[in-house]
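Reviewer 2 asked us to include a model.

Predict the structure of this chain.
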Amino acid sequence: SYIHYLSYHIYTGWLFVRSDAPNITTLGVIFASLNASVAPIITMGPALSFPQILATVPSQILWSWSNLFLFALHNQRYSAPEDALNKPWRPLASGRLTSQDATWIMYSMYPVVIIVALKYGGLAPCLLEMFITIWYNEYGGHKNTILKDLLNGFGFPCFLAGPLEIATGRSIFSGQGKAAKWISIIAGAVATSGLIQDFRDIEGDRAVGRKTIPLVIGNTNARLLATLYVVIFTCLSC
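Predicted model (structure tokens):
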């Protein structure tokens, strides 16, 4: 039936972003809402009331989901063998879609993502995230340990900057650019402590020959290094 067909594909779309959507979307909304409420401090216009911020939450979620979905389509086209070990429920690994299907949907999403950003805001973070997505997935950014962490470091803050620009209606570079500086500190923290997410994918990374930091310097040393990075950037953010 049509309802079954529709629900099947909606669920397939959810499986693409299942690992990251709850965390990334929730963090983006919380970050945007808290900072929009004190917007003058970060030179992004007047402070907004709770109803004003709440009214922008649906568009924040739509922005986050569309950009994350585009990244997932790029990423999972190539990771089916690895996902069969780490995340066998993903659409390509489980056989719900073919790589050709994912590629067609991926190209179709580009105008959707840009239209969402043009209508609601967050165009600059959207374009930067697109650039990082292509570099990371299509041009080998994920294969170099250092470059992988740097791209993740700049990519994740896009999911903070986009919702914040939507909530405030202003660029993070507006005023004295304090919001941009604050997000840059977060980018540095993510880039240097991003190796934490590699711990959960050790078996898959080893199977495909990816040289992540835990595999290069050992699990214990990598955990100590991650702890050091967290301490350093905690001090910088205070």
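Residues 2-237 form one domain. The chain is about 75% helix and 0% strand. We have added this to the supplementary material.
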